[in-house]
Amino acid sequence: KGTLRGTRLALRYMSEAEGGSGGVIINMASMAGVNPNPFSPVYGASKAGIIHATRSLAISPEVQKSRIRLNVLCPAFVDTPMFRNMASGDASQISCSNLAAVKAFVDHIGVMSVEEVAAAFLDLVKDETKNGIILRCAKKTGIQYSTLTVQDV
Question: Which Pfam families match (predicted)?
Fold first, then answer.
């Protein structure tokens, strides 16, 4: 809930209609919200929600008039305390007791440094052409801008 509440608060204060000067909001999600992670399904579901909410707000007519861009950064594994807890088998972080399978999954994807993620974040801040974009970043695949295809119903 914190990401969505923070986003709505930022929209209110940043909106030109409310006296703000526009800008950019970058929400943090995860590659687990884009690609399935068999070891953290609930975490992935919550990150998918952040991705969808961010992209939905970005195309909202009200937000588009506010001169605010919204994007979402989706890193894969990053060398943080939370990642180290997950990789060590912390039951609050994963839904699997097979540490060998977790390690193989992590090794396949790779682990980014915090600095690499910060550089990707700055790309989203600086590029004023990006709105409603997912920036996927992973050690082995690098940085990839992505949009999920939206179909009329």
Answer: adh_short
